[in-house]
Amino acid sequence: MTTGLTILIVIIAGLILTGLYFLQRRQVKFSKQVFLALGLGIVFGLILQLSFGATSKIITNAIDWLNIVGSGYVALLQMLITPLIFVSLVGAFIKLKLSTNIRRIGTTVLVTLLATTAIAAVLGVLSVFLFHLQGADFVKATASKANLAILKEHQTQVTGLSIPQQIVSFLPSNIFADFAGTRATSTIAVVIFSAFVGVAFLGIRKDYPKEAAVFAKGFEAIHQIVSRLVHLVLQLTPYGIFALMTKATATDSIELIANLGVFIIAAYVALLGVLLLHTLILVAHHINPVVYYRKAWPALIFAFTSRTSAGTLPLNVEIQTKSLGVDSPTANFAASFGLTIGQNGCAGVYPAMIATIIAPTVGINVFSIQYILSIIAVVTLASFGVAGVGGGSIFSTLIVLGTLNLPIGVLGVLIAIDPIVDMARTLANVNDSILAGVITAKRGGTLDEAVFDDVTEVVESTL
């Protein structure tokens, strides 16, 4: 009976995936495909849980098969991170007209990303106070063995490292190992290496222009290959989202989600506060936020549904350059740095919330200004090196908790509802990187106002 029901569930899932394929063949808008897949995954998962129970063997077996699609999609996205960062950053240096632009662009992008992350941490702390979550009294469950195993796996990568040691770990001692993603900090190591390659190219372009031209031409070919790879993988997004959402809603207990609902609401309030902060920054720079959000919307929606900043990178750059009028080097710098530095949601709001929730359980007065400032400082420093895929928030949060000497038990419980929160976190991350590009271009005088003001120029990714 169990085997028969498992086969039936897999067949139904296969039929839904086939339906999504036919929609793709009929060239339905990509955003509609993604939203439909999201909705179908939620409904299908809830039906499975209500019918058989979140921990039933039938669900476990069926999800194992569906994981071929969901986990396979995530694995392919992770495969793209390193080549995407490398070609985007080096390509940005190649497109720079003057090497003196590097300091201006790099400084403004980094200041924007880190400053907004620090304020995002403040918003996370305030949200915990607003909903009275400090002390973790709202937690009515214990962490599952699977979630504790996830934490243990991530914790082994940061145990015993002080903040200065973590900063040193960002440096690439073996770039081939980092290209293979063997370390938790491999992503930012690739960013650093790519920046060195870019600076070296600028020196070669000045002294040996012919050789530099050959390199630039060859690199453009590599960039086109990587772009096509991204195109191929992102075509799988509707199928991956359906599988991932089905798994999340079928296996995450409805009762647990209800018990942790107050945390979900608090997180979304804090993340909405981050978007309000972004809006105020736009207004302060005399940039129309209505036009901005209308044009950034496709990337934000993709980020929300796919839960991957890295997967959004090509659409991020395309929207900045074609819709918002940001010059190509700035757009590539902002989008690439935004993958690993100063993610407002995953490395700002979330770690600050968790630290504020847990601190009172060990007798710390979280209302102390000194302690709040220490949370903000640690969160901002720990925001370096967060990978732009699922799990990055856990890594940054463990660094913060370890630095502040806080226990991690509550985090093991909250992982159960992480996909729900992660959608909004990823949207905030991507919006901040787009914001950094627009602000940097505006301050540097390279923002094409005509392109920005042209409301007909809106990128809609159909893949």
TrEMBL record:
Q: Which UniProt keywords apply?
A: Amino-acid transport, Membrane, Transmembrane, Transmembrane helix, Transport
Signal sequence extent: none
Q: Where in the cell is it found?
A: Membrane
TM ranges? 6-23, 35-52, 72-94, 106-131, 184-204, 225-245, 257-284, 371-389, 395-417
Q: Which Pfam families match?
A: SDF
Q: What is its main location?
A: membrane
Q: How does it sit in the membrane?
A: Multi-pass membrane protein
Family label: Belongs to the dicarboxylate/amino acid:cation symporter (DAACS) (TC 2.A.23) family.
PANTHER family linked to this entry: L-CYSTINE TRANSPORTER TCYP (PTHR42865:SF5), PROTON/GLUTAMATE-ASPARTATE SYMPORTER (PTHR42865)
Name of the featured protein: L-cystine uptake protein TcyP
Q: Which organism is it from?
A: Loigolactobacillus zhaoyuanensis
